[in-house]
Design a protein that fits this description.
single chain, alpha/beta, six-stranded parallel β-sheet
Amino acid sequence: MVSPEDLLGVRRGVVIAPAGCGKTQFLVGSVKVNPSGRVLVLTHTRAGVAAIRERLRKAGVAQQSFRVATLDAWSAWLALRFPKTSGFVPTGTAADYGGARDAATALIREPCFQRLLASTYARLLVDEYQDCGNGQHAMVLALADAIPTLALGDPMQRIFTFGPDGLPTWDSIVSSFQQSWELSRPWRWENAGEIGFGTWILEQRRKLLAGGSVDFSAAPPNVRWISRPPTDDTYFAIQHQAIPQKPTETVIVINSSRDRDGRHRIARGGYRLSVVERADLPDLISWAAKLDSAVSTTRSWQVIQFAHDVMTDIDRTSILQRLNDIRHRAAPGPVTDEERALLSLDTSSGGDGIVATLQQLARSRERVPFRHELLEAMCQTANLATAGRSLMAAALKVVEQRAADGRILPRRAVGSTLLLKGLEADHAVVFDADTMSSADIYVAMSRASRTLTVVSNSFVLPRG
């Protein structure tokens, strides 16, 4: 078993880190054992940056001994720090990512910058290397000419297969780094007292990596396979059988990345699940734009629509009819606090009244939020949208702040492999497994530390 100490003298190498085998702890250990100088740690997302910083803080690593950043943020920082030499001029568009990366790579290759980097950083660690595009890979290789470099990743977790500049093959990555090692101790399952389950998952990884399949009919007791019913009605009934109900245990429910509506239906089903949103919260931006343009009675209607999108038991038709009756003085019975809050939106603007109205709507016992992250982000947005600030401007600020802070994910979550990669739970439930690639199947099943339930047409996956 390779340790961080074993690789102290390595000039350039890659550490293959299967899910659950202690990659993050290995990364933290690699920073801790560095004898002198500052370590540069690069990853892909701001949430990843926040998580690594927190792990380093908990490990007692002195803050001045490391720098953690995303690959794109660090390349932009370097290109902007030397604007005349790099020639990088930001445009405020998505093209800036590639432009900054190319400019930074050109700078790094210059002999003077090679010396500057070598005197600034003692080591470079790049996390989640399987997700590097060709441009990022080229930049890291240029850095590796100046700084001893370790890449950490897993080819079987390469599910972000899109990108403007494509992805290098894993074989080319290993060959670029010259030496490779593999973590093999199933820490996730050992810590849960389920080492046999972890050993089985690692064996399935080897089969999938070699182009084979997983036979769920020959799995250990931790694994349950359920045949997918032929109709949607019976499929929904199966969900109750498949999803563990104990509130004290963590659960991850995974379905096809393409079936966003399916995740929402599952979360609405009364299983105390919360939808994991995309980090850039596109639905928050969309709702902010709708509310910014809404005036008079359409404003209360848009808030009702938003509430229906994030919590159960919002009968939009009856609520709208009741509000119209009250406006025309044709409604029987007293006006409720909930109705007053909705009616007050007719004459408000910006974020005024939105939070109070959503809180009133959520007070009903029958109404259960199932998109907590989106609901909380909208409340933050409305609170910021004061003093003439639009909801759209506030929403963009909220997205930026939440990305920088990282996210606390729910104990009972529903999402896709793209949204849940890197997480773990006591139990994982996988729907739509027939539609998944080998990498998606591996990522989905390796989320579970205690039990795995797979619902599919075939018990041999992926289907050929």
